[in-house]
């Protein structure tokens, strides 16, 4: 057994306290797996004097001086979250020779290249399995298992709160506002749910997944983002009628030119209908799952709990063991791979499919006029279903599902439909994925 | 970019030719991801003169002299399969300083420790993602992602042929023999399907998974193995009546003593009923999936194609990139972790649940006698369902599902039931998992 490795923990919230407990309670097993003991040398918190009965460590380990702490560690675990002071602390840690394990999706998605560059400069590891989809191993499979393959597309349910809300809307028929309140009461949604329901959290994860999948730098502000606040009970019901379900998806797609050469990547977060037969449709409650399509591997799915102290701690500790082993055996893990350097295309250029529900006049010629609006914008229709509305003799509902077309063309089609004299209302439109 | 790394390929069947094609066709991408070109220096085959139009390499690369080839390689890819000559070639390769990537589940499950010891002695990598569940990243997640956690149980559908057969029996109601013939006609089963349908293939994978999950050496001959040849259409129908489905499962379980200390591992392959609501129940056709229960992570599932040239090649190439990076950066990947060294318990000591279907006399006192047989063997009953058989006035069917009990006690109960005067026949019994 080698000399102990010094581990510094930054943050002691739900995840941090679970990590601290595991380092203490499973110390013998972790030592056997690493080949050296992991010695917790300090926990940086804002209020070191606050009693923490659930963290069974010497109270003297708590400190408010994170900057000094990280300078003497071999491995720094950052679970504070947010941009500052996490960024400076991670950079200081690396500068002083520590490998870093972080769960900080926001920082990675905003400024990953700076962190990667520092890791390379100082010859240390930067690991972040916990940043995407909690306990589910997805960063390591993307960085390592699939690195010999070509990933075409990633479809991820990477935010537990929104999946919980959409799943409940599907099973109860209730609306968005009511369901969010229920999620808050049950602890599945924050008092201020903006980061989840507006898709910010999923967008950061999408940026990380796209960067890994396509060997290209993608920052969170390059991710097209639409949340679920506009998803109505009627949308969910419309999906149900299509034998589909509404999910908030993080979508990373490789685009190719006519010769088949990769020409760009589309990275976006938005609600979409997916068929109930798709493996992602059965992801219930607050679970997460990432569906990956690769040239050789085919279709893979990774499923599990996407959040919570213990699941996130599992991912953090797997990384801690990995970087600790590297310190003992020499070498290091994968570094940033951004060689493909593909452009991130705008949402208008992303190829998607639409489900559009229209209230129209029930008389001859309406369908021709509607179909004309699609054709004028170069959008091909896959199916049309017409239903006479029960409450009115001369009104009907048209449900159109399109083939894939640039999102801009589909938006323009919706605008054109709104202006048609025979169309009372574009009742709803939503993108369709996974078909 | 560093100097090229010399890659030797052993075997050029379905997997080998896919690997060779990828090394050629994706050479630029692989070089960018590794930091050096992967130069294919030879392909060892039995008949080097045979035309191979689907492998776009210089025909001069084919050789029958595998032994010489492996001595000059940096990375050796072994996709011959079987014990000999694969074992000697791998050992020779390592002795001469090559890292090895293999898909050879049989060899790893029979003699993994010898290979691990050689890798450690010579300071090279031994990687084998493709040995379990094809393209699905499961070896790396078990060796690395979950290494900071404690795995309780692994339930795997790790043989595509048997899953295809059982899925078809479920959807068509047909019997085993008929369905195997259909699977053979469609290319999902070999002309001699023994290795698959008798569970040998799954047992080798179970041994590998258990070794990784529990840091304990498990060889394939320590795995309790029952195939699917005895699974009847009636069994599948009985499962359906329980809202369950029959799957061939590779099960790896950690046993604990009364104080909670790990006391042994149960590793077994057998058909079992699982509820249709379990994530494994929706694994259709020849797909594979591995369901993992861990202390902190909770329940995870890894899903994808478990076989085939391209999917297996994807897993092989991920490993090739990993070991190639280690050669450039120094260091190496995880080594054997067998420190826990837990005993493998016999099947009789494994805790399982049974579904038992009995034909009995329909008269007072029968249930008391049947229940007595369970009680005498210390087996607790969860549910009993009684149904009068339509074809006879005085005969009934009893379906009993038990709580968990040692398999030996359940076997003894079945024997005792067979001897009861009121029991005409033990119509069927099957283990129940995943509840």
TrEMBL record, chains A, B:
It comes from the Bacteria. SUPFAM superfamilies: ACT-like (SSF55021), Glyceraldehyde-3-phosphate dehydrogenase-like, C-terminal domain (SSF55347), NAD(P)-binding Rossmann-fold domains (SSF51735). Gene3D superfamilies: 3.30.70.260, Dihydrodipicolinate Reductase, domain 2 (3.30.360.10), NAD(P)-binding Rossmann-like Domain (3.40.50.720). Transmembrane segments: none annotated. InterPro entries: ACT-like_dom_sf, ACT_dom, Asp/hSer_DH_NAD-bd, HDH, HDH_cat, HDH_CS, NAD(P)-bd_dom_sf. The active site is at 205 (proton donor). One of its GO terms (biological process) is threonine biosynthetic process. NADPH binds at residue 105. Residues 355-429 form the ACT domain. L-homoserine binds at residue 190. Pathway: Amino-acid biosynthesis; L-methionine biosynthesis via de novo pathway; L-homoserine from L-aspartate: step 3/3; Amino-acid biosynthesis; L-threonine biosynthesis; L-threonine from L-aspartate: step 3/5. GO terms for molecular function: homoserine dehydrogenase activity; NADP binding. NADP(+) binds at residues 10-17. It catalyses: L-homoserine + NADP(+) = L-aspartate 4-semialdehyde + NADPH + H(+); L-homoserine + NAD(+) = L-aspartate 4-semialdehyde + NADH + H(+). Keywords: Amino-acid biosynthesis, Methionine biosynthesis, NADP, Oxidoreductase, Sodium, Threonine biosynthesis. The keyword Amino-acid biosynthesis applies. Its cofactor is a metal cation. Its EC number is 1.1.1.3. Catalyzes the conversion of L-aspartate-beta-semialdehyde (L-Asa) to L-homoserine (L-Hse), the third step in the biosynthesis of threonine and methionine from aspartate. Belongs to the homoserine dehydrogenase family. PANTHER family: HOMOSERINE DEHYDROGENASE. This is Homoserine dehydrogenase. The lineage of its organism: Bacteria, Bacillati, Actinomycetota, Actinomycetes, Micrococcales.
